[in-house]
Amino acid sequence: MSPEDNISKLKIDSEKSGQKIIQNKELNIWEALIPVVILMAMLAYNIFFVEGQELLGAYTNQYILLTAGVIAAIVGFFNKVSLELMVSEIWENLKSVFVPIMILFLVGALAGTWLVSGVIPAMVYYGLQVLSPSIFLPASIIIAAIISIATGSSWTTSATVGIALVGIGSALGIPTGMIAGAVISGAYFGDKMSPLSDTTNLAPAMAGTDLFTHIRYMAFTTVPTIIITLIVFTILSMNIETTGNADISGLLSSIDNTFNITPYLFIVPSVVILLIVTKTKPLIALSVGVLLAAIFAFIFQPEVLNGISSSNFKSIINAIFVDTEITTDNENLNKLFSSGGMKGMIWTILLIMSAMVFGGIMDGIGALARITKELLKLATSVFGLFASTVFSCLGLNAIASDQYLALVIPGKMFKKAYEDRGLAPENLSRTLEDSGTVTSVLIPWNTCGAYQSSVLGVDTFSYAGYAIFNYLSPFMTLLFAAFSIKIRQIKEK
User: How far is CA 40 from CA 304, 437, 485, in A?
Assistant: First the structure.
């Protein structure tokens, strides 16, 4: 085939978004699916046959994505696609996630400084005090949600306060599956809505929107879902007889002995929330949050800073960039009061970059356009497109057993399909979170399901029926799509 024929084979269409969709007329659907099938096979092998799920160490998923990218490149070479074109698409993809990567670094810095300043401990301290036996289950949801919003991690919430809540609830005679369901519902609500969450940053990065637009738009489906969840658990609480007292004095005492707890610490998150609401750019809002927390740490937590390093300034620098651990007399709280700083975001950032490499090559050889075209034949309506996204996320959570990949792969493959329909990218990012992030914990062999079951000491099938927020979220996003509620269109420039 001549170079001229090769050029005519690759049709490049300009989109309203300014991105390019490369369509390879010679590439059939089976060739386009080869990298995807191999990717799924490697992930499945890693999960089911490799002990510890670490075929290639901590960065196995990144290596698998890059390997699948090499396979895609080989398919491209067989279809006369130039290396230059593939590299160009990889570069365009990497440029598109520069701002999300910077945000992720700031999120790590924010988590570290909010810890040493006492902001996160204060949220835990005051949150625990709303416990009451008569409203234990809805209170557990609220506590888990507050702490998960503050930390950006459903895993950390479950491993700390979640364990305490299961212990307290068990002493009150409440079924452990019910308690775990309430904790997980609140933890994943907070995880979704927190700008500190890696999945909340990952979803808009894949879809092509910004963090705070994603959070605001996601609230339309997430808030009604958590309200329904709270109502159901309130009814359950009214029909359960409790005994004993919810003794949290030990936890409160440990926090109070370690940190200087004061309501003034809430000024920091309040300022950040105000900046978010007033649509300040994410990089600015998060930077202000880091700076304010650092100042508050010097003012309110000098003893904590002295315990980290001989220099208070060095302690702040450590909190921003590397691992920070604050020791209390309570082992469970020690797990909560630790942060990885910017260093803790490296894994997620490398996953994003690996996904961009894989996606860039798939773009370059025309595979994504071919797969999307076939999917669009099945999705003959806007609702069909949303439903296809939901089922893809659910399928990947079950097959790949990893919530990150359940966001990355559908996000990359459906992105242009949403653009073709004239749908704003926040539609896709919201659907990814509503179906990918929250359902991972319902699958026993998924990393999230296995983790939560192990940490809380409750079998997945025991809490799955009570994780109302998690299994209701996909239905809510489909309900909004079916009735065209808050389905935002791309605005003409």
Answer: 46, 18, 34
